[in-house]
Inverse folding.
């Protein structure tokens, strides 16, 4: 009768693959939106705007990576940084674990903040120090 739904229990609650997939989609969407709104001085602006008319949906992986890097170079603290890092973690299987204490991050927290990289405890400790 004692389910581990009590947050104080802090039981590992791994994300289902469905949840992981939908969080990943959300992160990709956020990334794309940030890229849309990012203003980056881009040497290749002329080249890319030439094809912009027809190929709106043609976002190749290389193109995305190039734009991500350009944005990150321009703004090291950009929110995009968190999102790209989170996406990388979904690739290498460390997504959903706190970077500081390596404990699983609560599902509710990830669903609310898909790019979260710390558990609540570490986040609070870190935030208190700054
Ligand atoms: Zn932690």
């Amino acid at each position: 009768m004692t389910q581990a739904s009590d947050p104080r229990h802090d039981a590992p609650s791994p994300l289902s693959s469905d949840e992981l997939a939908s969080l990943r989609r959300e992160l990709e969407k956020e990334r794309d939106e940030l890229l849309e709104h990012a203003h980056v001085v881009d040497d290749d602006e002329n080249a890319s705007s030439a094809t912009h008319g027809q190929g709106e949906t043609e976002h190749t992986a290389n193109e995305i990576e190039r734009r991500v890097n350009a944005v990150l170079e321009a703004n090291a603290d950009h929110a995009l940084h968190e999102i790209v890092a989170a996406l990388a973690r979904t690739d290498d299987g460390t997504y959903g674990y706190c970077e500081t204490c390596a404990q699983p991050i609560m599902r509710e927290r990830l669903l609310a903040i898909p790019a979260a990289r710390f558990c609540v405890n570490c986040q609070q400790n870190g935030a208190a120090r700054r």
